[in-house]
Amino acid sequence: LVGQVKAGVPDALVGDPDRVRQVLLNLLAHTIKLTRRGEVVLRVERDSASEEEATLHFTLADTGPAAPREQQDAIREALSSGKDPGARNLQNADLGLTISAQLAQTMGGEITFEGSEAKGNAFHFKAAFRVEPDATALARSRPSVPRGLSAVVVAAGPALRCALAETLEAWKMKAAPTDGARAAGRVVLGHLGVVV
Predict the structure, then answer these.
(1) Is pLDDT of 195 > 60?
(2) Which residues of 95-120 are buried (b: 16+ CB within 10 A; e: fewer)?
(3) pTM assigned to the model
């Protein structure tokens, strides 16, 4: 399981953390169930924003093959049932998706699903939040990050390697992602400063 908050996501938002948590846990459970092999990734990025509001886009995806077509259709039906309160013809497993879709709507957003053999499965959850006006004070209180250093990122999974490298680069560090000790050793011999 890899979690990544992309650069540009505001530091402080006002919303309903219990609803966001419920939706994310439900979608994460479904993503894990659909994953036959590979990694599961939760990414958060800023979809749109103004000074007063930000819409975040949460993506829960796996790197394995896509779910069977029938299962994808059942997921899409459960999500669309969340838009129609009169729809009740659901299996228990799909009820959580329907409730999550309804919660997303109450937060000014939506949930969609896509599955493809090339990319695997992905749930997309968007929700609107109010931007906390004192966020600049929070940003200033964060510990400083040593900028300009070079770092070797050693991780077996490509999604984790990518997430760590992007985070370090957002901190203005130079990242050298590798998939194992031998590759990391070659990079370290090239005189990088920090091994992560």
Answers:
(1) no
(2) ebbbbbbbbbeebebebebbbeeeeb
(3) 0.78
